[in-house]
Amino acid sequence: MPNTYQEATYLEVLCWTAGTRIKYGPNPKSGKSFIRYDKYMKAKTVDDSLKLGSYPQDLFFDYEHGYITVLGGEKRSAPLDPKDEEKSWSKVDKMLARMHRNWITWKKTFELADQLGVDRRQLTSDKTTSETTEMRAKRLHATAMATMILEDVEKSKRKVTDRDVLAVLKLWGFRENTNRQNVMKEGQNFVFSDTLGLVAGYDGSVMVTQATSEYSAVTQIFGRWLKDHTPAELQKHGFGFSSINVNANYAAALHRDGNNEGPSMIKAFGEFEGGELNYWGDDDKTHGPVEKCCKAGDKMSVDLGENLLLFDGNRGHSVNDFKGERYSLVFFCVGLYDRANKAVKAELERCGIQFPSQTGMAAARSLLGAPRGYKDAKQKKGEKPALCCWAQAGKATGANFLTAVKVQEAKRKALEFEDVEKECTDVQFVSHKIKYHILPDGRRSVRFFMVGASSGGLRLAVSADEDRKGSGHYLYQKVPGFKIGPALSPTHRIADVRAWAEKFTKKSAVAPTGRRCVRSSSAAEEVNQGKRKRSQGKEVTNISKRAKVAGA
């Protein structure tokens, strides 16, 4: 719901009820709006108007333009909030409450854009699922910071340091994750936790999270840090992982991870006291619930601020309370990682994730002893420990990206427009991406890029500048250097440009919404594919038992 009406209009209309009495003036409209207005202008109440074909937005438009006169009836003293919904609410109440929430969100978006001096669409376009405008802005800042650090790392031929990782984490916009119920302590409704890399779908597929692809430089920094700090025992094959849990400022309750192959690397970052990881290395989940099996006296505690830890996430673990600012990264492998196809693996590699091999996974497991349970948990001679710990010491090298100057530089670069046409020479494309920015004279500018099928880079195809400041009128035209695809007649409609791009865009593993979300086939899809192959006399690859269960 765009913020296109006066505040007085919102405050008036949002206080109406189903029984608010109104009167419409003569029909002032044209086209389809004339036909619709001609029907609902007979209404005597707000409820009647909607039943006769008025759109909710029409109430705001018609009132602001003087087409509606309020005659009386019930009105509220203040707009409703959806979170206060009651059974007694009418459909009109629910609708206006949602529009009130949308209005508040839009106000915040415009205020944030004004503060940053950018086009609102720079913050709202390409938002990933469940991402607020504030989160989007922070994640763009973190991505710019990660890019700056990666450039410095390459230039100085140094390793990524804890300080580098912390500089990115402090800028990252965390989601209020309500799904991780197993890590929440009593009274918590959410934790600040995001997953980068691979996640498993309910249908037995695996997919790369949208945030991984959208903010690939952030994922690359985290993956590069682990590669630079991989202990000697794992150097031969590297520590392969499919996913990274990115956490901030919560002490996890006692739990076992779900959908985890087991071997996991964890490290904490920031200035904090406490926050040790408690680990029950002999926890055998076949013996019962984690609360029953893991007693306080059996735990091992590790300071993750000073140590990198290899442990089994399927065994009981928790985090002590702490003071200060504490972040953590957990590198692990989802249980269905072997279902990743070539497209999924290629996208993970592009984003800096070292996908595990069977040999590498076996090497990591070989460093961890098997859980013995706590009935007979005395370690016998020759048995391997339940965890491996490596001290992380050493002086930070390279530029200090935690300084205020570097932070401000990252925030400035995050929303700068960059002409990235030269980075992509592809001639086949899998999707498109739209970028917005403000011209020096205050007019807004739109750039329409094609996403390369091979490189994933962006190639400028269409551009348009606002004809005058604040008009919202654009003329989209194909740029002279882009010779690919059919002809495009100059148009004022971005929808025409999207339709033009679809004509020469290859079908790929990108989500139907157009956002990058690369996924594998589901278990059901592979079953169907298998049936087709059998009918053609071709060999059928068996679907793993895990995938069948996940797809059920």
Layout of strands and helices, then pairs:
Elements lengths: L6 H7 L7 E4 L6 H10 L5 H6 L4 H9 L3 E5 L18 H26 L3 H5 L8 H24 L5 H8 L6 E2 L13 E10 L5 E3 L1 H5 L1 H13 L14 E6 L14 E7 L2 E3 L2 E3 L10 H4 L6 E3 L4 E6 L4 E3 L2 E3 L2 E6 L9 H9 L7 H9 L21 E4 L12 H11 L14 E10 L5 E9 L5 E8 L11 E2 L15 H9 L20 H13 L9 H7 L1
Antiparallel strand pairs: 1-2, 3-4, 4-5, 4-6, 6-14, 7-11, 7-14, 8-13, 9-10, 9-12, 11-15, 16-17, 17-18, 18-19
Account of the 3D structure:
It is a single chain. It contains 17 helices and 19 strands. The protein has helices at 7-13, 31-40, 46-51, 56-64, 91-116, 120-124, 133-156, 162-169, 210-214, 216-228, 290-293, 342-350, 358-366, 404-414, 494-502, 523-535, 545-551, and strands at 21-24, 68-72, 176-177, 191-200, 206-208, 243-248, 263-269, 272-274, 277-279, 300-302, 307-312, 317-319, 322-324, 327-332, 388-391, 429-438, 444-452, 458-465, 477-478. The longest helix is centred in the N-terminal third of the chain and has 26 residues, at 91-116.
Percentage of β-strand residues? 15-25%
Note the main sheet.
8 strands, antiparallel
DSSP summary, beta strand count? 19
Instruction: Identify low-pLDDT runs.
Output: 509-515, 531-552
Instruction: Bin the helical content.
Output: 25-40%
Head-to-tail CA distance between termini? 39 Å
State the shape. Answer: globular
Class by SSE composition:
alpha+beta
Structure annotation, total helices: 17
Mean pLDDT rating: 86
Rg, Å, rounded: 28 Å
